[in-house]
Design a protein that fits this description.
It is built from 18 helices and 19 strands. Helix 8 links the parallel strand 9 and strand 10. Helix 1 (34-44) packs across helix 6. Mean pLDDT is 87; it is low at 1-33 and 38-51. It has 523 residues and is α/β, with parallel strands linked by helices. It has helices spanning 34-44, 46-51, 60-69, 76-81, 92-99, 168-177, 182-194, 235-240, 284-293, 314-325, 350-366, 383-395, 416-419, 431-445, 460-468, 478-483, 487-502, 515-519, and strands at 53-59, 84-85, 106-112, 120-124, 130-134, 143-148, 211-213, 216-218, 222-224, 245-251, 264-267, 272-275, 300-305, 331-335, 373-377, 400-403, 424-427, 450-454, 473-476. The longest helix has 17 residues, at 350-366. 34% of the residues lie in helices and 17% in strands.
Length: 523
C-alpha cells in the first residue's frame, strides 16, 4: 500500500485521502482489548488520522467579516475556483511567498482537517503536490487558532513554529487513548513508557538551550510537570522523550486512593482537563524505592511532595517528604496549591506559609543532601497574597517558585457540559492567567530567584512566551495529552531553530523581554 502522498489523481479531479482496505471487524470479547480498540479507532477514519492540520492565509478584514456572519466562503479566488484553498505546514510558507508577498494585515488560521469531513479533498496543484481543497463553507468550529502574520525586516512573513503538530502515529495513538476513560488512558500511557514505548525522535542538544538555574545544569528549559508520573515509575523514559527535566509526584507520606471516581474530565474543545484526583499515590516508601534504584543515572528528576488528606500535622508531612527524598531528588517541590485537598491552599496564607517554609528549610538543612527547594503556587491568588508569598520565599531563602498549579476559574470554556465539574482546570485556557501571575511574581521576587512557568504550554511559541514573561524554565503536562508524546522533542527542536534564527547565544537572553506586557494583564 502506497503512502497517501504518492497518489496522483488527475488535475482537476477531486479526491479524498485514500482509505486502507482493512479486514472485517471482529467483536471485542474482552475489555480493554487494546488491539481491537486500536483497529476500530483506525478503521473509523484512517484518512482523518493522516490529514492533520491545514492552514489558511486571509486578510484580517475578510476573516473578521466571516466571524461576524459565522460563515467563511473564502477569498475571491476561492469563490471563482469553487473551493477554498488551504495549505499544509510544509506548503504554507511558499503560499505566502507566491501569493501574498509584501502584503500586510494578514492572518494565519490553523484548521483541524479532521472536522471537515468528506468535503475536504486533496488534489494535485502547484508543482504536482497534493493540496487541501474544501468544497463547502468552512465550519468555524474547526478553527484551532488565529495569529497575525506580520512582515519581518527582510520583507518575508514571520511564521510561528508549525512543527509542533502531531504525527500520524501520535494521532492514531491519541484516538486509541481517547476511546478509554481518562484514568485508564493515563495508566496505559505509563505502562507504555515502562515498556520503552512510544519511541520519540531525539531532541536536539544545543549549547544555547543549556541553563544553570538554582545551581543545577539543565540541558534544555522544558520539563514534565508533576501529576503525570505520580509514583516515580518512568522519570527516565520521560527524559528520553526530550524533556530537560522531569518532576515526579505529588507524593504523600502514606498511600492514599484520592477522591471518588470519575475524577478526570477531558474538555476536548478547549484542549483542557479538569481533575479532582486528590493526591492519589502509593506513598513515600514505594516512590523512594524506585528513585533509589536509579541512583547514578544522569538526568534531573525533581520530587513534588504533599500532605495526606487526613493528616493531623500537614507541615510534618512536608518535613518527612524532605527528609525522605532529599538524598534522591535533584530538587524538591513543596506543593500547597492543589485545589483538590480540602484546606491545602490555606497554607499559602502568610502566617501558615511562614511556619511551613521555616520547617521545610530546617528539614533540608538536617538532611543528608541539600537539593534546591521550590514552592508551587496557585494561579488564583490576588496581588496581596502574591506579595506575601514573595516576601516569605525571600525571607526563608527558598530557591524558587513554580507558577502555577491548576485553576478554579472557568472563564470562556466551550465545553459547557463539563465546565461545572469540580476540580482544577489545566491546559490551554490556563495559559493567560498563569502567565500573568508568573510575570507578577517575577516583578515581586526580582531577577535572581528561579521561576518555573507552568500552565497552557502546548507549543514552542507558548513555551517561549513563558520565558519572555519571566520564567527560567517551563513545564507542561496537559499539552502532551492533546499533542502526543513527541511534543517535548518538537518544542525543544523549535527552541533550537528559534535561537538560530534570532542569532541568540543563549535562550536566557529572551527572559523578561515581555515582562511588563504580562505583568499588567488582568487575570
Amino acid at each position: 500500500m502506497q503512502p497517501y502522498h504518492s497518489f496522483a489523481p488527475e488535475v482537476g479531479k477531486s479526491r479524498s485521502l485514500p482509505r486502507r482496505r482493512l479486514p472485517p471487524e471482529k467483536p471485542c470479547n474482552t475489555f480493554p482489548d487494546l488491539a481491537c480498540t486500536l483497529s476500530r479507532a483506525v478503521r473509523s477514519d484512517y484518512s482523518a488520522a493522516m490529514s492533520q492540520f491545514i492552514y489558511k492565509i486571509a486578510p484580517e478584514a475578510l476573516w473578521r467579516e466571516a466571524e461576524r456572519s459565522g460563515r467563511f466562503t473564502g477569498a475571491p479566488i476561492d469563490v471563482a475556483d469553487g473551493f477554498i484553498h488551504f495549505s499544509t505546514a510544509d506548503q504554507v510558507r511558499e503560499t505566502a511567498a507566491r501569493h501574498f508577498a509584501g502584503q500586510t494585515g494578514l492572518l494565519l488560521i490553523a484548521i483541524d482537517g479532521d472536522r471537515l469531513g468528506g468535503a475536504l479533498k486533496y488534489e494535485v496543484s502547484r508543482g504536482g503536490a497534493l493540496f487541501p481543497h474544501l468544497y463547502a463553507p468552512l465550519d468555524l468550529s474547526a478553527v484551532l487558532w488565529i495569529r497575525p502574520l506580520p512582515l519581518g525586516a527582510d520583507g518575508r512573513h514571520e511564521f510561528p513554529d508549525l512543527e509542533t503538530e502531531m504525527s500520524m502515529l501520535d494521532r492514531i495513538g491519541q484516538k486509541l487513548l481517547f476511546t478509554l476513560d481518562p484514568e485508564t488512558a493515563h495508566g496505559l500511557s505509563i505502562a507504555a513508557l515502562r515498556c520503552g514505548l512510544p519511541v520519540a525522535p531525539r531532541a536536539p542538544r544545543d549549547e544555547r538551550l543549556k541553563l544553570r538555574v538554582a545551581g543545577l545544569d539543565f540541558p534544555n528549559p522544558l520539563g514534565m510537570a508533576a501529576g503525570y508520573d505520580k509514583n516515580a515509575e518512568v522519570p527516565d523514559a520521560l527524559l528520553g522523550l526530550g524533556f530537560g527535566f522531569a518532576e515526579v509526584g505529588t507524593v504523600t507520606p502514606l498511600a492514599q486512593t484520592g477522591n471518588p471516581k470519575p475524577r478526570i474530565f477531558r474538555l476536548t474543545a478547549d484542549e483542557a482537563v479538569i481533575n479532582r484526583l486528590g493526591f492519589n499515590n502509593e506513598g513515600h516508601e514505594a516512590a523512594e524505592k524506585r528513585l533509589a534504584a536509579r541512583k547514578g543515572r544522569l538526568g534531573i528528576v525533581g520530587v513534588n511532595i504533599g500532605a495526606n488528606k487526613d493528616s493531623a500535622d500537614r507541615i510534618g508531612d512536608y518535613e518527612r517528604g524532605v527528609a525522605r527524598f532529599a538524598p534522591h531528588a535533584t530538587y524538591l517541590t513543596v506543593n500547597i496549591s492543589s485545589p483538590n485537598t480540602p484546606g491545602l491552599r490555606n497554607m499559602q496564607a502568610r502566617e501558615q506559609l511562614g511556619e511551613l517554609l521555616s520547617r521545610v528549610m530546617a528539614a533540608r538543612a538536617s538532611a543528608s543532601a541539600q537539593p534546591p527547594v521550590f514552592l508551587k503556587i496557585a494561579p488564583d491568588l490576588v496581588e496581596a497574597e502574591l506579595e506575601d508569598i514573595a516576601a516569605e520565599v525571600a525571607e526563608k531563602r527558598v530557591d524558587g517558585v513554580i507558577v502555577s498549579n491548576t485553576t478554579l476559574a472557568r472563564t470562556g470554556l466551550r465545553s459547557a457540559s463539563l465546565a461545572g465539574e469540580a476540580g482544577g482546570l489545566s491546559g490551554k485556557p490556563l495559559f493567560e492567567r498563569s502567565t500573568a501571575v508568573l510575570a507578577r511574581m517575577r516583578k515581586l521576587v526580582g531577577p535572581e530567584m528561579a521561576i518555573i512557568g507552568v500552565g497552557g504550554v502546548n507549543s514552542t511559541e507558548t513555551a517561549l512566551e513563558k520565558i519572555r514573561a519571566g520564567a527560567d524554565l517551563v513545564q507542561l503536562y496537559t499539552g502532551m495529552i492533546y499533542a502526543g508524546p513527541a511534543l517535548p522533542g518538537r518544542i525543544v527542536a523549535g527552541m533550537a531553530r528559534f535561537v538560530e534564527r534570532e542569532g541568540l547565544t543563549s535562550l536566557r537572553e529572551l527572559r523578561d523581554s515581555r515582562l511588563d506586557h504580562w505583568a499588567v494583564k488582568a487575570h
